[in-house]
Structure formats: structure tokens, C-alpha cells
Amino acid sequence: MKSNFLKTSLILFGLGSILAACNKNDSVGGGGEVKYQVKPTGYSATVASSSSGSGLVAVVGSSNSLNFTSGFLNVNEVDFEAENKTVEIEYELKGISNVDLFNLSPILGSVQIPEGTYDEVELKLVLKKSTDNTIPLTLKGIYKNEAGITTPVEFYFNEDYEIEVEAEDVVINSNSDYLGLINLQLNKLLLNVAANDLSLATKTNNTIIISSTSNVNLYNKFKANLNAFGDCDFED
């Protein structure tokens, strides 16, 4: 059952942001357990002639759409922080977690925190630029234009980035379990992308490659949309 007592937002920003240092307790025992997991949604997106009509959830296989069919998220570090007026708890888990966005996502980690009401709870996924095939975000799919012609599309994001989830006024009960779902709304990567952006894109071996070195204008639009493609639910 979803808990309605959380006001949540997802903010994505570059590694330049700093997490404030303070006295901390790492993974305090007792209290309630909070687990966190990635949950992708919106696998198929509209791609309209006007960019204002793009980025909505589309029927899979429909014309004027991009249907994502595979993808991976590589998380280098998970940071958790909860605080109120009397206590602050921090937890850090390092090591690459490979998340297949098209299969059931694994639990990325968990932390137990003492019973109480917390003014703020933060969860941060740290993505780091890679020199091998474990790049932060890879998505592949099929673009179908108005005439029904299909073209493979591949998006490669290989930059330092942080995904931060913030929740306010979180009530933790002793011996209770909570699940934080980071919802990645893939359809929103197509916000402000018009059909011509894809139809006129440069193709490599008949595939539209979107990366920092290929179809850079499209890449910059996808990158900008990282600020809008996520939100969060907490379940108990």
C-alpha cells in the first residue's frame, strides 16, 4: 500500500553539488528498514510533428513513437541520509550496481533507522563517467515515423551525474519495512523532441546513435530531460 504521508520530488544534477558534512551514524540498527529500488515506466513515448506533443506515454508499436526495448543503469555509489532536530544518519554503499531496466530491478541497498519523524530523507544514486562498457545509462529502442517506417535508436549517456530523491516529514515506525521506488519515466526523455529531430538525424549503419559525439543536438535534449524524467514513491 502506498503511503500518502510523503511529499517527494526527484532532482537530477551534476556532480558539482555537495552533500553537507556533519556528525553521522552509519546504518544504525533497530527501528524501521528502508530499501530502495529503481522502477522504469513509460517505455513508449510519443514523437509528434510539434515538440509540444512529444514525451507522452504512447501505445506500443504506434506510429509517431519511440519504443524503448532495452536499457541499463550503472550506479557507482548509493548515499542515504535522514535527519531531524536531534539525529542525523548517513549510509554509503560503494561498488557498481548494474540495473537492467527491462527486468525486475534488484534492491540497491537498505538501511535501518531509529523510530521517529524525520524532517528530511535523502537518497542519492551516484553515476560516474566510464572508460569501458559500464557507462551510466544506455537505452535502445525503435522509432516508428508517421509512415510506419521503423529505425533503431540507441542513446548513450556517459557523464558524471547524481540522482537525488528527497522526502520530507517521513514517519518511521519500529519493526516496519519501507520501499523507496525511484520511478524513471523513460517517455519524458522525448520532451521537446520533434519528429523531424529523429527523421533528419544522422544514421550510422541505419541506426540513430544519440551520444555526446553523434547527433549532439538530440543528445543535449535528452540530457536536459534527465531533470524531468524521474519521481519517487514510498511504499510500506
UniProtKB/TrEMBL annotation:
The keyword Signal applies. PROSITE patterns: PROKAR_LIPOPROTEIN. The keyword Signal applies. It comes from the Bacteria. Keywords: Signal. Residues 1-20 form the signal peptide. This is DUF4382 domain-containing protein. It comes from Pedobacter cryophilus.
